[in-house]
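In the design runs reported in the main text, the only information available to the sequence generator was the tokenized backbone. The following block is the verbatim input for one such run; it is reproduced so that readers can re-run the procedure and compare outputs position by position.
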């Protein structure tokens, strides 16, 4: 099924063009492994600053989690269906504005009355609107007596999201602990809580839980295993405005890839799977690919799964504390 409907692999002409480009011995400031959304964003910002960037992608198309496939005349995004932060002042909008692409890559706000609809087993259809107060009212109307618990739960989401803004985007310092702890009491208290634990603490009843979990499919995880913070980030983000690209996610990905390769000395190599990251004295010297190529740069960034990428590293061993961090359980959404 996937083989039948995925985009075709590189043509002989495309492969020849990549080989010819590699033979030119380009010098890069950054080599980036993987072409997922994070890679495309950081690469766009780097090339905007004038750095020469090379992206190595194992697949034949860019996008990673956001890549699209076609069936017949239509394209479908493999996972992402709508996102937030696309209006003026939002992170995605301001990122595109910085690149000068905000009028090229545009987004449409989904229906404010219900950007999502939860179809319940009893036949009721509950719209998921912007504004938690409206959501509480929808649930209370459908299931009298259940609005109060939902209000406690959504109020807690709002408090936690506000506290997130007080956290620094770097490692905590002693001064941070002294000056910030009292501003993030809910973050401290609920840092290890699951969604189910917070449902129970807030008195959210069964039907209301089902409605609130309409977006949990993004995580492919049940409430008793799903991080409350992850859910608060996602559900609270959608609550600020859910958007879909005017020209599809495929255009968003392809346009960023084009923006990168349009800059002098910047390239994306497809079907170029990294197999080794060669290090010396805790520094990356170069990376090797499955087809025998060597890529060098002043800096390297890896946008691949950390546990997988750690198996590529040769030349020296990881400290034991790093190895422990790499032994993690995969989220079901990792299947994508």
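Verbatim output:
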């Amino acid at each position: 099924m996937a083989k039948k409907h995925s985009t075709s692999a590189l043509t002989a002409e495309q492969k020849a063009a990549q080989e010819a480009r590699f033979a030119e011995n380009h010098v890069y400031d950054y080599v980036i492994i993987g072409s997922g959304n994070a890679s495309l964003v950081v690469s766009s910002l780097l090339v905007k600053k004038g750095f020469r960037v090379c992206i190595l992608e194992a697949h034949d198309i860019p996008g990673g989690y956001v890549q699209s496939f076609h069936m017949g005349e239509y394209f479908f995004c493999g996972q992402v269906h709508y996102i937030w932060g696309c209006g003026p002042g939002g992170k995605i909008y301001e990122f595109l504005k910085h690149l000068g692409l905000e009028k090229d890559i545009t987004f449409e706000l989904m229906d404010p009355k219900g950007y999502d609809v939860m179809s319940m087993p009893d036949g009721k259809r509950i719209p998921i609107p912007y504004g938690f107060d409206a959501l509480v009212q929808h649930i209370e109307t459908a299931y009298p007596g259940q609005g109060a618990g939902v209000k406690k739960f959504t109020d807690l989401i709002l408090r936690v999201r506000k506290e997130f803004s007080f956290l620094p985007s770097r490692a905590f310092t002693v001064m941070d602990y002294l000056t910030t702890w009292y501003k993030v009491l809910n973050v401290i208290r609920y840092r290890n809580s699951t969604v189910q634990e917070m449902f129970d603490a807030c008195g959210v009843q069964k039907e209301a839980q089902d409605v609130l979990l309409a977006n949990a499919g993004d995580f492919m995880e049940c409430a008793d295993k799903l991080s409350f913070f992850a859910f608060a980030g996602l559900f609270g983000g959608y609550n600020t405005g859910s958007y879909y690209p005017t020209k599809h996610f495929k255009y968003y990905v392809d346009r960023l890839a084009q923006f990168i390769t349009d800059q002098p000395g910047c390239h994306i190599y497809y079907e170029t799977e990294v197999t080794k990251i060669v290090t010396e004295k805790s520094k990356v010297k170069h990376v090797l690919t499955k087809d025998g190529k060597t890529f060098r740069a002043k800096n390297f960034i890896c946008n691949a799964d950390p546990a997988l990428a750690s198996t590529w590293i040769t030349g020296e061993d990881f400290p034991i504390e790093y190895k422990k961090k790499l032994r993690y359980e995969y989220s079901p959404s990792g299947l994508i």
